[in-house]
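Below is how a single chain appears once it has passed through the pipeline. First comes the sequence as given, then the structure the pipeline wrote out for it. We keep one example in the README because the format questions we get most often are answered faster by looking than by reading.
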Amino acid sequence: MNRDESTVTYRRAEPGDAGKIMELLRELAEFEGVADNFKITQDTLRQWLETKALEGVLAFRADEPAGLATFYTTCSTFRGKVGRYIEDLYVRGKFRRRGIGSNLMDMILMTASERDACRVSWQCLDWNTVGLDFYLGRGAKLVEEWLTLGMTIS
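Resulting structure:
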């Protein structure tokens, strides 16, 4: 773990954490400018955590949620191994620059390693230079030959 270990605690997210996670995800949606698209319900989030469709790690300072990482399992059919996709990595503004984001990332990498994953991947908005600098500074590489595509279904 990195800086500020003595005042921040980390633990795996549990279904009962759905309310805390919703609060952090709402803040992240506002930060990303997509709060109007925030539709997930606490019941859906709880169900995903129960079935491990989504997993997570929470950071707390005292009893206050300070940050969150959510991720899920992917598969590499070519390599025959699982991977991890980071859906969200968020640290509240007042808790940034204390090593919390690095610790959350380390925990995801650790779970990926424990499951013999072949890769961890994620997306970062092109305007989020602080996030890009954070990821690149940790050794991440831009995968330029692949383009992200998507379709909205409903």
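The first helix runs from residue 18 to 31.

See the next section for the split statistics.
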